[in-house]
Amino acid sequence: MSGAARLVLAAAVLLALSGCSAPSWVPLVGKAKAPEPPPPPPPPHEVRAPILSRPAPSTDAESVVDRVICVVNSDAVTLYELQDAEAYVVHETKQAPSTPEEHAALREKTLAGIIEKRLQLQQAEREKIVIDDAEMKEQLDEIQKRLGAKNDAEFEQMVQAQGLSLDGLKKRLREQLLVERIKRRKVNLRISVTEEDIDQYLNANREKLETGLSFEARHILFVPPAGAGEDGWQAARRRAEDVYTRVMGGAEFGELAREFSDDTGTAKNGGRLGVLKRGELAPDIEKAILRLSPGEHSPPFRSEVGYHLFELESKETLAGERLTQARNQIRDILYKQKYEVRLKEWLVEIRSKAIIEVRL
Questions:
Q1: Looking at residue 31, what is its pLDDT?
Q2: Dihedral (C-alpha) 163, 168, 169, 175: value to the nearest 10 degrees?
Q3: Do 3 and 91 touch, CB atoms closer than 8 A?
C-alpha cells in the first residue's frame, strides 16, 4: 500500500485526539478507491529483536524494504516503517526532498521521531499504562464521525478503501493514546505555573502586553526657526518653559495650544492628538506621554522637531477583565514553555537509559 494512503486515517487519529478541524485532505465519501492487497508480512527472522548483527543482503525487493534498520532496546524498526513515516511527513508538509542531502536530512529526522515514539511506548508499557476498550471505542466513534461514516460497516469500508485495515487503525490509535497518557504522567502533571510566575512575566513584559491599548493626549509644539542653529533651539525651549509655567499656574491647556502651538494641524483643536494606539507614535514621544497620569502635564520635552508640552487625557491599562485575559494568556505561554523544557528533559532521560542500534 502507498504511504500516502495511510495518511488519511493517521490524520483522523490525530484529529480525534486534538479536537482540531479536519484538513482538506481527509477523504470524502464517494472519493474512495478500491482497496489494495496488504503487503506480505516480513519474514519472522528479520524482525525478531534484539538483533545483534546485520542481516544478509537479499535480492528480493520486498525483503530489502522490510529489513531492520534500527533496534530500540528490544524493538526492531524496519525500512518499510521508516519509508511509510517519511511519506507521511512529505504529504503533511507538502515539501518533498529534491536533493540527496535533503532526503538524508528528512530520513534522519524521521528516524529520530520513530525512536522517540518507541521509547515512549516502552515507558508506557513499563508503567503498566493500558487503554481500555471503552476509551478505544469512544475515540473510534469520534474518527468515524469526522469521516462522515453513517455506520460501522461504512466506516470499515472507508478504512479499507484507503488501503488500510481496521486493526491497523486501532493499533495506531492505541499507540497515540499511550504516548499521550505517558506524557501526561511524566510531563504534564509535573508542571505548574504559579501566580508569582505570572506576576514576574507581567512586570517584565508589560510594555509589550500593552501594545495596542489606546490613549488620548494633547500637545503644544514649539519649533525652532529654520537655520537658526542651537540658538533657535534655546529660544524654542524658553518659549516652552514660559507656557509650561502658565499651565502649572492653572491656565487651560487647550487655550494655550490654540494660542502658542506651532503645530497648526492640532492647534485649532486645542492641541488634541486624538485617540491613539500604543505603538503609533515615535517611541520617545509615546514614552514621555504614557509616563503621565490622566490630567497630568509634562515639562518641556525635546524631540526631533522641537519642544513639546504634553497633557494626558486618558489611557487604557491592563486592569479588570483585560488584566484577567492577559494573565490567562501568560499562564498559557508559561505552561507551554515549561512543557517544552520538561518534555525535552524527559526524552533525554529515557534515551540515555536505552540501547539504540542504527543500521542505516
A1: 36
A2: -150
A3: yes
All three cell numbers of 109, joined, read 529526522
pLDDT, residue 161, reads 84
Mean of the per-residue pLDDT values of the chain: 84
- 266: domain CATH number? 3.10.50.40
Pick the closest to residue 356 from 114, 5, 100 (CA basis). 114
Q: Is residue 325 part of a domain?
A: no
Place of cell 487503554: 131
Q: What pLDDT does residue 43 have?
A: 40
DSSP string, 266-281: HHTTTTEEEEEETTSS
Same domain, 164 and 43: yes
Our count of domains for the chain comes to 2
Both 161 and 269 in a single domain? no
CA distance 265 to 242: 22
Same domain, 7 and 94: yes
Domain presence at residue 108: yes
| C-alpha cell recorded at residue 235 | 529660544
Identify the CATH number of the domain in which residue 66 sits: 1.10.4030.10
**Residue numbers of the domain that contains 293:** 211-315
Can the peptide bond before residue 50 be classed as cis, meaning omega within 30 degrees of 0?
Answer: yes
Q: Does residue 271 surpass a pLDDT of 60?
A: yes
DSSP 111-138: HHHHHHHHHHHHHHHHTT----HHHHHH
Contact call for residues 86 and 111 (beta carbons, < 8 A): no
First to last CA, the chain: 23
pLDDT greater at residue 33 or residue 300: 300
Residue 131 near residue 194, CB atoms below 8 Å: no
Lowest mean pLDDT, pick from 99-103, 211-215, 243-247, 354-358: 211-215
Coil/strand/helix, residue 72 = strand
Rounded percentage of the chain residues whose pLDDT exceeds 90: 68
